Amino acid sequence: MAGSGEGDRILNQRLFEVKVISSFAAAHNLKDFRGKCENLHGHNWKVEVVLRGKSLESNGILVDFGEVKAA
Question: Domain-by-domain residue ranges, the chain?
């Protein structure tokens, strides 16, 4: 039956959302690996975290943004 799935129930709910986007660089090497990855090399990473909730705290926020960034 169309329109009765879990996805439809979620679409009919009001959700609040907090998104944190951050990036970092990390370096490593692969010990005893014969090839270019044996040498120290780096990677750049982008991380996105999305938190959703049905209601806000009494102070009007979904989650403490500073705590999310610290994690």
Answer: 6-70
